[in-house]
Apea-like HEPN domain-containing protein
Amino acid sequence: MKSIDVSQLSYPSMKEVAENMSQLAQNGEKPKTAMKGGIWVIREGITPVELYCYLNARFGPPNGIQMLFRSDDSDNLIHWHYTFNYKDETIEIMCMTFRLEIIHSIEFDSPSDAKVEFIKDLKKDFSVYGKNISKFRDKIEKWQLFINPFFRIKSVIEHQLEKLEALKIEELEPLSYPSSAEDLEKLKDRMNHAGELYIEATALGLNIRMLAPVYAESFINLIIFLLAEDDIKTDKRMYDSIVRQQIDIRIKGLHRNCKGFFQAVDYNNTEACKAFHTLMNNRNDLLHGNVDPKKLAYETVYFDGKIPLFNDYRNFSFYSWEASIRNVTPDLAIGDYQVVQDLIAHILICLEDNIRAEVCRFLETKDPGWNESTKRPGILFPSHLVDMFPKFEDEEFNKRVN
């Protein structure tokens, strides 16, 4: 056979499909598609949504046996499954997350050419059912996946914290003063190694401390995005004015501007909020590179004219790298992160239980969805991904996957 005549596809009911599978199982037989034919893996030429709309408009809802086993959500290995009879043969069309699979029991002269022709013929047939396809497509919801800024920043900070802790800066031995030329040569190598570690630690500590305020703001803005009162959501100017307020004002107004708060956030009296307020007061020095000798000072030195008079004995450890990490030490970086975590925990406690559970799920979602027509956010997919390829006992059949 050269190809498939799409007009000859017939659509058995799900009951017929299930009864046929049950009968095969009772007789100890295998489906035709497991004994001959092959598998077409499709990742181009036709999209899952256009094929699904066409099949639904022409035949009806998916009738494949896998529809009996799928859970009523998007967390499935096989999202939809159609079974068709074609003359005396069987064709199964299944959609996974990453591809379409067409399993058939037909022996073609050239399977690759037949696959290409089948896709072309399907797309040509779209025009025949164009009105029904458009009508069906109007019924399905359109969602846009978008990046969750809170999740992204949280992931970056935690990745940097892991790298910072792995450096184990606190375990570096102090550099002792050399007592010979040989010691001095060894000291150079040790200083270079320690310097590289401290530069990395300084970069990570500085990044974490600068991101901590952004991390907090992304959380507050996400709360407002998810829970803002309807009159605020529908009024862009009002919504924008709220998210542009000073962050302490935003936090204090959460219970008034958002749904789901059973109590106000006691910003002025709660220790978590006080610590966060201190963090925000210090943010400008880090974010804008402010020069404040008092805050950045690390030693006192005296001069008699141009003669330096040191207040302490200097050592190689301090002047090679320890001074560089002042104000961005691992302890300070971890501390800033914990301050934000404590603030987040306190605000979540102020939410009603059911609302808190939904918000927490959203916080942990990397790629949530947005329905523009209903102005509704949603969690469309689980955080994990699943995939598989079938493997048949017949090795020759396994080779007929293309």
Observations:
- The radius of gyration is 32 Å.
